[in-house]
Design brief:
Chains A, B: This is Geranylgeranyl diphosphate synthase. The structure is a homodimer of 363-residue chains. With 363 residues, chain A is mostly helical. Helix content of chain A is 74%, strand content 1%. Chain A has one domain (2-360): Orthogonal Bundle (Farnesyl Diphosphate Synthase), CATH 1.10.600. Chain A has helices at 6-9, 15-34, 42-57, 63-74, 82-106, 117-124, 132-156, 162-189, 197-222, 228-255, 258-261, 266-270, 276-284, 287-296, 304-316, 319-338, 345-360; strands spanning 110-111, 114-115. Chains A and B meet through helix 3, helix 5, helix 7, helix 8 and helix 9 of A and helix 3, helix 5, helix 7, helix 8 and helix 9 of B.
Chain lengths: 363, 363
């Protein structure tokens, strides 16, 4: 039973799982390259599958696929794993879509330490025109749309039994809407005062937490016909853990090692990203600290020196410690939820390991 | 049998069909407003369903839903029409997604004679900041993503029998990829020489023709379990007619009455849109005409006077007449395909009526 999958489930960054998911993604992209929707599109299919292959190969923890397989194991899944890995891969493809469109909106220059897709596509289709950057952004928008469509196709061709397909599609529909609403919240919050902690947590919850932890687990569980009670427990585990994941991400974005995260430390601060960390610091800042934060956060010319100063304010106001405490609280809440149901031992162990890894991660 | 649907099928702009599809869309948006994926998203659900409602209400011929119902009738569909109308509505929602992202890429200011979604959203979220336009474009990109996700949800909740859902999803996956490749072709052609007629027709085929006529017909036919032979005939009918549709669109974009099309005549020319009409004119232009076209087409400051001059060149080079001939050839090809299969009489009549309307339309 579930224990046979334990090699792939025993750690957050399991090589075995990652390889299995990547094999599905590679084969899928090969299929799209070799069988475009029309014979007249062979060259474009080769070009765009290659672009997406490069994007996927550049990194990523394959966290969502792992959680999908874990949810399946937690619900007592057994037998043929190939539909499970295909659904898991579709979640990674959906994540790729979300990142690609995120980079288009943020006009980001790098992702995972490499040029973003729109930068690669700008170079490929520059034609020496002045609006090459616009063409690159539009191309990346279109590739994002295609990747969204591909995440659908991976699901549709997973070979699921009718009732399971129906259950999975319903969860997937909710997940997608929630992410998009969350992105919208984040976008419209961008121009407002950043001192609202509750608003920042709310954005994190909808934009990241739900589609990173809760839904992948529940989608996996649906593949093993999980009853409603199990879905509820997985939500009670996944929601706080997803928020902890995002809060850790916010800390890493300011205090992390760029060599590990693959992302310049200053990016979040330069973009004025609406985080709980920043909101807490703004709330508690004295007039001098407040003026210092207002002057540099969100400034396109934000420097490494500014970052040092901001880090000092985040520490001095206790904002950093409070966010660490928020992470611990959510971790404890998640772990408590695990005790409510007798999960298969290997799955319970993997979920606890996952919770530890999410909270302690450095990348 | 099929003839009972004839009121909705008897013309391209059937009021009955339009109302039935719009009722599904309205009800669906009400559901999304009243039941967001999380209780914390009530305000955002209200705001974004309202924005999409406004977009859908601004116009549109509901051509794709009509063709879906027509494909169903052509394949002998009978019985409960509610799943058919829901799938039909999902095609309109997909079309809305494509238009919204198109407007983001083109930075269009109007659509159907009204401000585009990003202009409305720019105003709603300006916050008085300098980058309000960027926020509006990002918001429209996100709303487009949400509308794509909603087109999926409409399909998933159509209550289709397992084998039909599977057949429809497979067609829908092909349709989506083809449109996105077509958009990509169009985008990267933008900066190149416009004298390639074959390339222009190829863009029209993938970007518009397939998802406007052929796929909606075939998706409808799949809802009535059409055999492979029928799918082939619908392709032989739909492909040339889809190309004719786009060629007519190109003519209307230059020679049409803006009061009917809802789109300023100069837009296509100002954007340097890669059409067969322009390609033919460039091919046949004498040096003076060529210089005149090169000077104004694609120029952001293109005026109504420039348009008169370009119209004159399109007529004098015979480009306009050749495009009319291309439309007639495709019309004849489509009508011949209809004779290969004994369709239900009402459906055959509606398809011929549709072909006539596509070729002769003024909006």
């Amino acid at each position: 039973m579930a224990t046979t999958q334990s090699p792939a489930l025993s750690s957050l960054d399991s090589t075995a799982l990652r390889e299995a998911v990547d094999a599905v993604l590679t084969q899928f992209l090969d299929e799209q390259r070799d069988h475009p929707p029309d014979a007249g599109l062979v060259a474009e299919a080769a070009q765009l599958t290659e672009a997406v292959r490069g994007f996927l190969a550049a990194g990523g923890k394959r966290l969502r696929p792992l959680l999908c397989v874990l949810g399946w194991a937690a619900a007592g899944g057994r037998g043929d794993t190939s539909p499970v890995f295909r659904v898991a891969a579709s979640l990674e493809m959906f994540h790729a879509f979300a990142l690609i469109h995120d980079d288009v909106m943020d006009r980001s220059e790098t992702r995972r330490g490499r040029p973003t897709l729109q930068h690669t596509l700008t170079a490929a289709h520059a034609h020496g025109t002045a609006d090459a950057e616009e063409v690159g952004a539009s191309a990346a928008l279109l590739v994002g749309d295609l990747v969204f469509a591909w995440s659908c196709r991976l699901l549709h061709t997973a070979g699921l039994r009718e009732d399971r397909l129906s259950a999975v599609l319903s969860l997937v529909d909710d997940m997608r809407s929630e992410v998009m609403y969350g992105q919208f919240l984040d976008l419209v919050a961008g121009g407002r005062s950043g001192a609202d902690v509750e608003a920042a947590v709310r954005i994190a919850r909808h934009k990241t937490a739900s589609y990173t932890i809760e839904y992948p687990l529940r989608i996996g569980a649906a593949l093993a016909d999980a009853p409603t009670t199990l879905h509820r427990v997985l939500s009670e585990f996944g929601r706080p853990l997803g928020e902890a994941f995002q809060l850790r991400d916010d800390l890493l974005g300011v205090f992390g090692d760029p060599d590990c995260t693959g992302k310049p430390v200053v990016d979040d601060l330069r973009a004025g990203k609406h985080t709980a960390l920043l909101a807490l610091a703004l709330q508690r800042a004295d007039p001098g600290q407040r003026a210092a934060l207002d002057a540099v956060v969100g400034d396109p010319s934000f420097t490494e020196d500014d970052a040092s100063r901001v880090r000092g304010i985040f520490a001095a106001t206790g904002a950093r410690d409070t966010v660490e405490q928020m992470i611990s609280d959510r971790y404890a809440q998640a772990v408590r939820a695990l005790e409510r149901v007798p999960f298969p031992p290997a799955a319970a162990e993997a979920m606890r390991g996952l919770a530890d890894a999410v909270v302690a991660r450095t990348t």
